[in-house]
């Protein structure tokens, strides 16, 4: 019997002795995470790298909710793979970021709402490409129908002369509303499975300190620091902070663009001020800064994704990652192009492209890479709550 087979047999035996066979209830990808966590729990070399390892040490066995929680807690920084003495070609074949990434992708499908739409996570790159093609074609055709041309100067750069405000609200409102509903209900499904439990077995209370820590860790991307603060691994052993920086530009750029749209909505309905707004108005300033972030951030993330070593994460999810990053970048670039071209004849064309890109983004929002954001925040929240509770294992320093 090889050492790997011996280890697997010992793991199953230990699980059986502990009362039950939790690994038997897991699928292949989940069993692989559980197997690797059993090894890591004996080794613990990576304890200070990220939240996954302290969370792991609070468990002796790993059932499906534990595996789903840990998979979404992992930020795929690659540090534990590069530090691991049991990584391939060792017979133990420990590759935590890859095993976690496979389960993480499955959790998006498992908890998706409606459940049948979880299939859209598979071949997601194709789904995004189809959605973008259809949305672009629809807005280009609608612009042609409205103006008879895609190349025409519109007085005052008034895009409502092409698509009236009410029509835009009627098209984008329901799609965005459905996307938010699907994300919230998917997150609810996930949380119902993984929520932290108090020693009495009920739901553990979420205190302000835990909430603040989770918010801090999510907003600062603490665990993209690789444990030493020097960053993630991409193509080799070297650590770099560029993924964290590009991710910040993308996330905060997206947030500022969303804020720009919210302020513009307030202007429209609350103050009766109708777009287009001057370059130095609050919605345009927020949108401009956010748009620049949404160009530089996704471009950088795409570049890093192309460079990333195939052992980091799950290569089968790369079409999903790249499609999402590219679509975000197109939203940012087309928004900035529209701002620059709004007084000239290219306005109808750039407007159609921007609206098509944003519509494709909203259509695919709950069934693509964006799902990692709410699931990871939920995992960070569970970690922050759990670490404030006594360990149930009551071992050593516990
Ligand atoms: S990843 Fe490797 S080195 Fe790190 S704790 Fe697990 S077995 Fe140990
Ligand atoms: S890849 Fe990074 S975040 Fe994921 S478990 Fe390893 S050290 Fe933690």
Any key phrases for this structure?
398 residues; mainly alpha; two-stranded antiparallel ribbon; binds iron/sulfur cluster
Describe the structure.
- This protein is mostly helical.
- Helix 4 (64-73) packs across helix 6 (96-111), helix 10 (242-271) packs antiparallel against helix 11 (282-307) and helix 11 runs antiparallel to helix 12.
- It is 62% helix and 1% strand.
- Strand 1 and strand 2 (239-240) form a beta hairpin.
- The model is unreliable at 17-22 (pLDDT under 50).
- The radius of gyration is 24 Å and the shape is elongated.
- The longest helix is centred in the middle third of the chain and has 30 residues, at 165-194.
- It has helices at 3-17, 28-43, 52-56, 64-73, 79-83, 96-111, 124-147, 165-194, 208-220, 242-271, 282-307, 318-341, 347-364, 372-386, and strands spanning 232-233, 239-240.
- A two-stranded antiparallel ribbon has the order 1-2.
- The chain has 14 helices and two strands, in the order αααααααααββααααα.
- Bound molecules: iron/sulfur cluster (2 copies).
- One iron/sulfur cluster is lined by residues 46, 49-50, 52, 74-80, 96-97, 100, 223.
Radius of gyration, Cα only, in angstroms?
24 Å
Count of runs of 4 or more consecutive helical residues: 14
Low-confidence stretches: 17-22
Overall shape: it is elongated
Q: Name the strands of the widest sheet in spatial order.
A: 1-2
N-end to C-end Cα span: 36 Å
What is the string of helix and strand elements?
HHHHHHHHHEEHHHHH
